[in-house]
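Run log // design_07
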């Protein structure tokens, strides 16, 4: 537990529901964290929520930009998606508890050379312009330190109010569609 893998880029970055996460070289922070939570799978969403809070807080501390959460796992700044979180794991069917969880966090720190692909150019954004100093290591450290602090207190859900405060879709009308 606690092993962190940081990648310079990903050739097959994953998002929720089989979507791809664009993760080009020299422009983002791409982390995977191995966890062994003492919780049931039905409470696994707390890991994603805690990571979203830690990510948003780290973005604000490092860049000074206001960061909001789009339920359940996306971080937005100024109306643009700047980060995504994916939590996957294996569950022991007898106990209903996790054997392990891999928490993935991807943050667009700077615009990629050549820009974002057309398929995401309308929604994707970056935290900084290319002319600003590099902050990827500092951001990664802040996110991991913040997440670990929340993770250690996961059963208390004491970050729930902070999560709700940052959610910008609460109280809004949404349309759910199923393509398939």
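design_07 sequence
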């Amino acid at each position: 537990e606690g092993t962190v893998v940081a990648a310079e880029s990903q050739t097959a970055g994953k998002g929720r529901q089989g979507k791809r996460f664009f993760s080009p070289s020299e422009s983002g922070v791409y982390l995977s964290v191995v966890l062994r939570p003492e919780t049931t799978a039905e409470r696994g969403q707390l890991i994603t929520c805690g990571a979203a809070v830690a990510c948003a807080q780290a973005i604000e501390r490092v860049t000074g930009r206001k960061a909001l959460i789009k339920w359940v796992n996306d971080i937005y700044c100024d109306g643009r998606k700047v980060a995504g979180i994916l939590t996957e794991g294996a569950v022991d069917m007898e106990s209903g508890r996790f054997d392990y969880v891999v928490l993935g966090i991807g943050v667009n720190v700077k615009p990629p050379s050549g820009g974002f692909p057309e398929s995401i150019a309308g929604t994707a954004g970056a935290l900084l312009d290319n002319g600003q100093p590099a902050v990827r290591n500092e951001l990664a450290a802040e996110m991991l330190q913040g997440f670990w602090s929340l993770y250690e207190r996961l059963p208390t859900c004491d970050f729930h109010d902070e999560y709700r405060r940052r959610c910008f879709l609460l109280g809004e009308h949404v349309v759910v569609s199923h393509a398939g």
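The two ends are 37 Å apart (CA to CA).
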